[in-house]
């Protein structure tokens, strides 16, 4: 057994990140400043987007996106049932109603048949989640968007590197929100980024992200003199700091190296775990580049009596950390009580919710870490 607990989703932090953060601290410029601007520029180039706005979190980006598109009380936004609460809560905070749809059992992304059944005259947007880094089929989604006049707001919390037909996923929506949370493929500890090609929309997003102050207010964080500002909307405090951006600048430069290491681990897991009573991730779509954010396994209850929760406990006892991504939103009391959802409403999402867990999957893992995870699973299943 391991001596040290293997933390799920631990990030790679190297000396250049440390040096950049220290440089920021010594500069005296800790808030939104030149390093945020630099990170925005470099991230926008990486994605291939005209505008990138650094923010406090992916959740903040989703919320801003919904509001900036004019979605309000009485409107509906379609959200997959299998996602983190933030996807739905961003809609609720705008006053609109999240309408849940099922997912495909194999890909864990939007089920297009159920999606089309849920569209009404009140539907204003769809928030696809590129689950675990796997791209939603954006050509199909774009057809639906164009047919019904519905906005697309990408939840790309798992999908920094994700591509569809040769383009980053952020190129396929009105607004895309990314996450740099501590467990994500690159991290700023907390933080996110919104990208869009629409200049007018980008200007609104900037205003809404900083107290509703006119866009020139962002320049008051520069060193070219004080600028008066005007409040033109009751906005939010969603900006990123230079301390966070100091991390992000260097993390972004390593994004493909990190992705390559996770790809190596992915292949090892796929080969070494296939004999266990588990349902492993399906093959990657040749039209897409998988972001490889999570390695999700489902307990195959036709081949074992061990439940998902028992497996989590057994792994924990062997000092292996795990995650659960996710219990469907219809499993949570708030959405049941507020919107009338219940377990059983979404067969594929419910199937996944009951069986899913994520095992350690990070560029920080050593070969021995990976071997420890495999040996722990083999020991639990007595293989």
Q: Layout of SSEs?
A:
Elements (H helix, E strand, L loop, with lengths): L14 H13 L6 H14 L3 E5 L2 H11 L7 E5 L4 H8 L4 E5 L10 H7 L4 E4 L11 H11 L2 E6 L6 E2 L2 E2 L6 E5 L12 E5 L2 H11 L32 H12 L1 H18 L5 E2 L8 E2 L5 E5 L8 H10 L15 H7 L7 H9 E4 L7 H14 L3
Parallel strand pairs: 2-3, 2-4, 4-5, 5-8
Antiparallel strand pairs: 1-9, 6-7, 6-11, 8-9, 10-12, 12-13
Helix pairs in contact: 1-8, 2-8, 3-4, 3-7
In short:
The chain has 383 residues and is α/β, with parallel strands linked by helices.
Total DSSP helices: 13
Per the CATH scheme, the topology name of the largest domain is Aspartate Aminotransferase, domain 2
CATH first level of the largest domain:
Alpha Beta
CATH architecture label of the largest domain = 3-Layer(aba) Sandwich
Main beta sheet, described? 7 strands, mixed
Order of helices and strands: HHEHEHEHEHEEEEEHHHEEEHHHEH
Structural class of the helix and strand makeup? Answer: alpha/beta
Spatial strand sequence of the major β-sheet: 1-9-8-5-4-2-3
The helix fraction, in percent, is: 25-40%
| Shape category | globular
Rg from Cα: 21 Å
**Low-pLDDT residue intervals, each spanning 5 or more residues:** none
Roughly how many Å apart are the termini?
16 Å
**What's the mean pLDDT score?**
95
Strand content: 5-15%
């Amino acid at each position: 057994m391991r001596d040290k607990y293997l933390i799920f989703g631990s990030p790679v932090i190297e000396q250049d990140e440390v040096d950049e953060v220290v440089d920021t601290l010594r500069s005296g410029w800790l808030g939104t400043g030149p390093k945020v601007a630099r990170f925005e520029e470099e991230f926008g180039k990486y994605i291939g987007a005209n505008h990138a706005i650094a923010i406090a979190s992916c959740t903040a980006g989703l919320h801003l996106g919904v509001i900036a598109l004019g979605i309000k009380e009485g409107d509906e936004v379609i959200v997959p049932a299998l996602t983190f609460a933030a996807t739905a809560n961003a809609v609720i905070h705008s006053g609109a109603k999240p309408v849940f749809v099922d997912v495909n059992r194999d890909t864990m992304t939007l089920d297009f048949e159920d999606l089309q059944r849920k569209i009404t005259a009140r539907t204003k947007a769809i928030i696809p989640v590129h689950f675990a880094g796997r791209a939603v089929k954006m050509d199909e989604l774009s057809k639906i968007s164009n047919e019904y006049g519905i906005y697309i707001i990408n939840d790309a919390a798992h999908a920094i590197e994700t591509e569809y037909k040769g383009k980053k996923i952020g190129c396929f929506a009105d607004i895309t929100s990314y996450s740099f949370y501590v467990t994500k493929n690159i991290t700023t500890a907390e933080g996110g980024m919104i990208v869009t090609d629409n200049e007018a929309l980008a200007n609104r997003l900037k205003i809404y992200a900083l107290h509703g102050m006119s866009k020139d207010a962002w320049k008051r964080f520069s060193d070219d003199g004080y600028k008066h500002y005007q409040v033109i909307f009751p906005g939010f405090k969603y900006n990123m700091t230079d301390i966070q951006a100091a991390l992000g600048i260097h993390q972004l430069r390593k994004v493909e190296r990190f992705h390559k290491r996770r790809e190596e681990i992915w292949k090892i897991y796929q080969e070494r775990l296939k004999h266990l009573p588990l349902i492993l991730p399906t093959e990657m779509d040749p039209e897409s580049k998988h972001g490889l954010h999570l390695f999700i396994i489902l307990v195959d209850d036709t081949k074992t009596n061990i439940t998902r929760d028992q497996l989590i406990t057994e792994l924990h006892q062997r000092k292996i950390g795990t995650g659960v991504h996710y219990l469907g939103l219809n499993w949570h009391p708030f959405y049941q009580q507020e919107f009338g959802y219940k377990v059983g409403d979404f067969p594929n999402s419910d199937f996944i919710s009951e069986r899913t867990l994520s095992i350690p999957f990070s560029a920080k893992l050593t070969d021995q870490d990976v071997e420890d995870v495999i040996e722990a699973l083999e020991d639990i299943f007595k293989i």
